[in-house]
UniProtKB/TrEMBL annotation:
Keywords: ATP-binding, Nucleotide-binding, Transport. This is NitT/TauT family transport system ATP-binding protein. Residues 1-215 form the ABC transporter domain. The lineage of its organism: Bacteria, Bacillati, Bacillota, Clostridia, Peptostreptococcales. It holds the Pfam family ABC_tran. One of its GO terms (molecular function) is ATP binding. It comes from the Bacteria. PANTHER family: ALIPHATIC SULFONATES IMPORT ATP-BINDING PROTEIN SSUB (PTHR42788:SF13), TAURINE IMPORT ATP-BINDING PROTEIN-RELATED (PTHR42788).
Length: 257
């Protein structure tokens, strides 16, 4: 999918102007950027909730899943019913497997108010996977959770993605989440929203730890980008440049493997 030259104003506020980004199929694209730069607006455009003033989305998906900061479960339905409701013909074993994968076995008959925030968010993610969307949008889904729990959720999402290999766009403020999950990390600037850097990490998600050399280097590049420092030289700059020359109008500054 290509977000092609998108522009969007809210009254006098120019959030996006000529914004361009390719979302690669079957990858996790993590989007990092300052508050108010337009991350949710981008997701809303991909999902069709918001219409761009100009530009187009090429390769638009029909079946899109969306996980928000809050779980949005139906309080009068059990955990299992909340998951089942998104797909009429789902086989019971699919739901059972998903519930087990997100660590909620034995809570099938619990109602949302009987679960912790982390458990409810696990249920929301299981529901999104049960829907089997062509593209899954996630807008800071772990925001309200503490660090340990967030890292558990990241691990769970790595496992789900390794199994399903679906296309995910994951918005976050947390660098660690982006480093552990992103096939590509898109660093945005604001006023208007533009792509500052694209960092590609080749190490499979399931094998990553935050102390790996490539993740440490990626963290430095991201922090430099966020604090406007000069970009560091990257060992794989040549292949990154090749990608730019052959590819779209991204600023792929670094390709780490
Ligand atoms: N429907 C709307 N009407 C008016 N202004 C809006 C609307 N939606 C978003 N905005 C404004 O557009 C800008 C971008 O908002 P958006 O929510 O996309 O940013 P964000 O990067 O997701 O922010 P955060 O990281 O704080 O969640 C903000 O200044 C916001 O106030």
């Amino acid at each position: 999918m290509i977000l092609k030259n998108l522009s969007k104003c809210f009254a006098d506020l120019k959030v996006l102007e000529d914004f361009h980004l390719e979302i690669k199929e079957k990858e996790i694209t993590c989007i990092l950027g300052p508050s108010g730069c337009g991350k949710s607006t981008l997701l809303n455009m991909i999902s069709g909730i918001t219409t761009p003033d100009q530009g187009e989305i090429v390769g638009k998906k029909e079946r899109i899943g969306y996980v928000f900061q809050e779980d949005r479960l139906l309080p009068w339905k059990t955990l299992e019913e909340n998951i089942r409701m998104v797909k009429k013909k789902g086989h019971p074993s699919e739901i059972r497997d998903l519930i087990e994968m997100v660590g909620l076995k034995n809570f099938e008959k619990s109602y949302p108010h009987q679960l912790s925030g982390g458990m409810r968010q696990r249920c929301a993610i299981a529901r999104a996977y049960h829907y089997q969307s062509e593209m899954l949008l996630m807008d800071e889904p772990f925001k309200s959770l503490d660090y340990d729990l967030r890292m558990n959720m990241v691990k769970m999402l790595q496992d789900l993605w390794t199994k399903w290999g679906n296309t995910v766009v994951f918005v976050t403020h947390e660098i660690d989440e982006a480093l552990l999950l992103g096939s590509r990390i898109i660093l945005l600037r604001k006023n208007p929203c533009t792509v500052d850097q694209v960092i590609e990490i080749k190490t499979p998600q399931s094998q990553r730890t935050l102390t790996d050399n490539d993740l440490v280097r990626a963290r430095e590049i991201i922090i430099d980008g966020m604090t406007n420092k000069k970009k560091r030289t990257c060992h794989h700059e040549k292949s990154a440049n090749d990608r730019i020359n052959n590819g779209i109008n991204d600023k792929l500054l670094c390709c780490l493997q």
